[in-house]
Amino acid sequence: MKAIVVTSKEVGARIKEINDAENYGEVKIRALYNGVCGTDREIVNGRRIGITMPPGKQETVLGHEALGVVEEGNDYFKKGDLVMPVNRRPCNKDINCLAGRPDFCETGEFVETGIVGADGFMREFWLDSPRFLIKVPHELEDIAILAQPLADIEKSVEEILNVQRRLIWTCNDGTLDCRKVLILGTGPIGTLFSLVLKSYQFDVWFVNRRELNTEEQTVVDTAGLNFFNSSRGYDELISKVEGFDLIIDTTGAEAEILNPTFRMLKRNGVLGLFGFPHTGIVSMHANDVQNFVLNANVIVGLVNGQKPHYQQALLHLAAWKTIWPKITSSLITRTVRIEDPDSVLNVLSKKEPGEIKVRIEWK
Ligand code: NAP
Ligand code: BGC
Ligand code: ZN
């Protein structure tokens, strides 16, 4: 079958025929779409640490965002059902993995399909275990591919809200709408974070170091987000907003991007690290460290969503189709077909202007 692979030896991806890809269970799934994540590009361009091949292999099938259709199933996953696989899988040695939460694996021996030690889903077919599959309503087929990155974000927001249970963080009307959040990066991850937090009624500020393109502007206008261009620093924003209760970096840019964020956090505020910076050093002045302590701030690493988060993601996508149809119909900015290998390899290596989410179509 046809697959998109990366190797341990060289950067870049290749489309080739393979016959020895890993399978994980008894449900046979035919691929419909793969989403292209910033992580796929980091892997293809050799910018992500911790990427490993399946045991004994020198290459792996790429792809952790997938939507497929059941070809041969069981009593629950029936032929014709739309399904989506969970990408991180447990080591089954520690209590979190045994409880279906390898996003908090204690041993570090989990695998991630298409990322860490397991073949991914950029291939025509795979076999999977019901344990790692989510049924997707046909009504969401057009945007369901977003549920994988959105699951990572649902988990992250759940985690932030759990961290903030250390105090009373709700406002005097019981909501979170007095809380201000700064999202660095306007890619698919930054966009989905903004929409989830807006759904929770946060006051959302969206940041890039350039002006927004038309597609991004549609998201901002429709969802009622605020935008700030950070190319001239943050002084103007700080004078306007005073500070943020939550700052989330989704850029995957240079680590220095975090330096100004420490001073923008309000008391009890949280800095969430989600993107994977590929270069640079974060530096924090001693006074900033003192303030961080005095202000009871938190830095938290946010990674990977699991099955309940995919379920929550599908609910959000369904709700957004109703309240923000203009957004949901414009998030997938490009679909490239596997029969067009040049375009596929191109979208896997770089982002194009005007892009939010790109997907690869197999049907
Ligand atoms: P992306 O499409 O590359 O988006 C990155 C965004 O950040 C783009 O809007 C980019 O603008 C913007 N940006 C770059 N440098 C910036 C700067 N200096 N200041 C402000 N904005 C800047 O990638 P993505 O798919 O959204 O993924 C984002 C990151 O999250 C990646 O590192 C990815 O690996 C990571 N990720 C982590 C998890 C997890 O579980 N922790 C899950 C999924 C993804 P331009 O459009 O101008 O380039
Ligand atoms: C995936 C996550 C994964 C993370 C770390 C992301 O791109 O969407 O599910 O845990 O990378 O490898
Ligand atoms: Zn991803």
The distinct bound ligands, ions and cofactors come out as: NADP nicotinamide-adenine-dinucleotide phosphate, beta-D-glucopyranose, zinc ion
How much strand? 25-35%
CA-based gyration radius: 20 Å
End-to-end Cα distance, whole Å, is: 14 Å
CATH class of the largest domain: Alpha Beta
Strands, total number: 19
Shape: globular
CATH topology of the largest domain: Quinone Oxidoreductase, Chain A, domain 1
CATH superfamily of the largest domain: Medium-chain alcohol dehydrogenases, catalytic domain
Total domain units: 2
Number of helices: 10
Arithmetic mean of pLDDT:
97
**In percent, how helical is the residue content?**
25-40%
Uncertain segments: none
N-to-C order of helices and strands? EEEHEEEEHEEEEHEHEHEHEEHEHHEHE
Q: Give the class from helix and strand content and strand pairing.
A: alpha/beta
- Profile the largest sheet: 7 strands, mixed
Examine the secondary-structure arrangement and name the CATH architecture of the largest domain.
Alpha-Beta Complex
